[in-house]
Write a structure and sequence with these properties.
Elements (H helix, E strand, L loop, with lengths): L1 E5 L5 H20 L4 H13 L10 E6 L2 E10 L3 H16 L14 E8 L8 H15 L5 E6 L3 H10 L2 E8 L2 E8 L2
Parallel strand pairs: 4-5
Antiparallel strand pairs: 1-2, 2-3, 3-4, 5-7, 6-7
Length: 186
């Protein structure tokens, strides 16, 4: 049985480990080195803090038989610059990294930053369940538009999003990689 709940600060390490499954290359670009443990620490610091794009405030935890099976982090695309500012400040302070990432989202959509499923729970349809949850809670109930990026090198993810009703609305660069920008709306 799946249980969806709001994340808590205490979940930060587990969330960071799952997020690394979804965004390790981007985190390594952010921190300037391929260091898994440092990537986890970077994400953990941000997840524990309020008011940034990776904050526990923007994350839902998915439990399967009382074990952490997955997470999703999402936020108002119109607040990207405000939510990204603490991320860029941490990179500058702790990693001496000054980066200027492209806007991965835009006003008018709730941006799904990450969906991550634990390797122990893959193949059980949890990623699909997370998408269904977001569609029901944000689109069907609140009449909001969902947006996400899908990497051109991940056609199976794109097929899943298309099956769920997402459509390609354009392309966006993120950390020097081109992605398709997809949206789901009523």
């Amino acid at each position: 049985m799946l249980n969806f709940r709001e994340a808590k600060k205490e979940d930060a390490t587990s969330i960071a480990e799952l997020m690394m499954l979804a965004m390790d290359k981007i985190v390594y670009d952010f921190i300037g080195r391929n260091d898994y443990n440092e990537g986890i620490l970077f994400l953990k610091k941000l997840i524990e803090k309020k008011d940034n794009q990776y904050s526990y405030q923007n994350t839902i935890v998915v439990e399967y038989d009382n074990q952490l099976a997955g997470t999703t982090t999402f936020y108002d695309g119109g607040k990207l610059h405000e939510l990204r500012k603490p991320v860029l400040e941490l990179l500058k302070k702790d990693y001496k990294q000054e980066i200027y990432p492209q806007d991965e989202t835009q006003a008018g959509e709730i941006y799904i930053d990450t969906i991550a499923v634990s390797e122990n729970f893959r193949g059980k349809g949890i990623g699909t369940e997370i998408l269904d949850y977001l569609i029901e809670e944000l689109v069907n109930k609140k009449k909001l538009t969902l947006g996400l990026l899908v990497d051109f090198s991940n056609p199976s993810a794109k097929k899943l999003y298309e099956r769920k009703g997402f459509v390609v609305i354009g392309e966006k660069m993120l950390m020097n990689e081109n992605h398709e920008h997809m949206q789901y709306k009523l």
